[in-house]
Specification:
The structure is a single chain. This protein is an alpha/beta fold and 370 residues long. The strands form four sheets. A four-stranded mixed beta sheet has the order 1-9-8-5, with helices on both faces. It has helices at residues 8-29, 36-48, 60-70, 88-95, 114-119, 140-147, 204-213, 235-244, 248-265, 295-304, 334-342, 354-367; strands at 53-57, 78-81, 99-102, 125-129, 153-155, 163-166, 169-172, 179-183, 197-201, 281-282, 288-291, 343-346. The protein is globular. Helix 2 crosses helix 8 (235-244) and helix 3 crosses helix 4 (88-95). The protein contains twelve helices and twelve strands. The chain folds into two domains: 8-245, Type I PLP-dependent aspartate aminotransferase-like (Major domain) (Aspartate Aminotransferase, domain 2); 247-367, Aspartate Aminotransferase, domain 1. Strand 2 (78-81), helix 4 and strand 3 form a beta-alpha-beta unit. Pyridoxal-5'-phosphate binds at residues 59-61, 85-86, 88-89, 131, 155, 157-158, 183, 185, 195, 197.
């Protein structure tokens, strides 16, 4: 592959010494569970996210699950979310015993429609889960304005460090929600060397509950107030992530530069739509996602040229076989369904060289005879 969708080894090569030292420090300490490396990362992610509290956990999926448990969401409850997201957003709703309620997206940003979310609220609704898709924040403040005090869990797995202007002031991903959740899966902008996740909140009582839930529900060891989980952030991962965190802003800026290059190089190509970033948003471009009616042909063309691409996501969640029991039919979330047919994510990682960027742009333009 001459231009892979993502090249983690290219990034590792630029930080190898710092990361290996951080890992060896943990190895030498033999203190692998929670402790200083996790606390340090929690403090730094809380600061980045303008949050009072940050709580590490095992992965981004557990972060969403723990958030719902901390809000007492379970059997008989409804949670409103988007069907155009990674599976975990809704899988966790099912797994706490609640019912996912899917509403459609805004076609330009791919994020949940605040109006549709508000319209789906019933007396059984216990939370809304907007997703900050592809690196761009959802309209969290608009959702808040429409749903009053209903809890908002912001799935910011793809958007750590993204920001959005609200009333003229920058707010960070996770900041305005009742609980914000992050993933450190290796392909995210801040990726560990394995799994990891984190939650942020402004609410001290929720933070305390989350700290208990991640260690089997007991504030005191061997005494359990409720049944929780084993969902800790690994100290080795925390050390890796702390070594990487100082680079995050520059990496995300480089992704924006790459996006600006593609925007210009692909502008005016008939039949192709480049990503839309809401003027109030600063995206971290976890993905650079174009849309075209000839998506599958374009992907095959890129593959023949040695260029990686991927479809996030080919089947919206309301139409997944595992959710057939919910009774959704095709046509109920038309924008999500259309996006699933048209989207294609191109290589956008920060270490792309100019010649790789040129190669991708030339191949895409070539497909359209430009
Ligand atoms: C990656 C991701 C998750 C899950 O994170 P894991 O760390 O892989 O469990 C959840 N939601 C979204 C939108 C994601 O992209």
């Amino acid at each position: 592959m001459s231009v892979p969708l993502l090249d983690l080894r290219a990034q590792h090569a630029t930080i190898r010494e710092e990361v290996v030292k951080a890992v060896l420090d943990v190895v030498d300490s033999q203190l692998f569970i929670l402790g200083e490396p996790v606390q340090r990362l929690e403090a730094d992610v809380a600061a980045l996210s303008n949050a009072s509290h940050a709580i590490g956990c095992a992965n981004g999926t557990d972060a969403i699950l723990l958030a719902m448990r901390a809000l007492d969401i379970g059997r008989g409850d409804e949670v409103v979310t988007t069907p155009f997201t990674f599976f975990a957003t809704a899988g966790t709703i099912h797994n706490v015993g609640a019912t996912p309620v899917f509403v459609d997206i805004e076609p330009r940003t791919f994020n949940i429609s605040p109006d549709a979310a508000a319209a789906a609220v019933t007396s059984r609704t216990k939370a809304i889960i907007p997703v900050d898709l592809f690196g761009q924040m959802a309209e969290v403040e608009a959702i808040r304005a429409r749903v009053g005090s209903l809890p908002i869990i912001e799935d910011a797995a793809q958007s750590i460090g993204a920001r959005r202007k609200v009333n003229g002031a920058w707010t960070m991903a996770g900041e305005l929600a009742t609980i914000g959740t992050f993933s450190f899966f290796p392909s995210k902008n801040l990726g560990g060397y394995g799994d990891g996740g984190m939650l942020v909140t402004q609410d001290a009582a929720i933070a305390e509950r989350l700290m208990r839930l991640r260690v089997h529900g007991g504030a005191k060891q061997y005494f359990h107030d409720e049944v929780g989980y084993n969902s800790r952030l690994d100290s080795l991962q925390a050390a890796v992530l702390s070594a990487k965190l100082p680079h995050l802003a520059a990496w995300s800026a480089k992704r924006r530069e790459n996006a600006a290059f593609y925007d210009q190089a692909l502008a005016g190509v008939a039949g192709l739509v480049t990503p839309y970033v809401d003027p109030d948003n600063e995206s971290i471009f976890n993905q650079y996602t174009i849309r075209t009616e000839r998506r599958d042909e374009l992907q095959a063309h890129l593959k023949s040229k040695g260029i990686g691409s991927s479809i996030y996501y080919p089947l919206p969640l309301h139409l997944q076989p595992c959710f057939a029991y919910l009774g959704y039919r095709e046509g109920q979330c038309p924008e999500s369904e259309r996006a699933a047919r048209e989207v294609l994510s191109l290589p956008i990682f920060p270490e792309l060289t100019q010649s790789q960027l040129d190669e991708v742009a030339t191949a895409v333009r070539g497909f359209y005879g430009r």
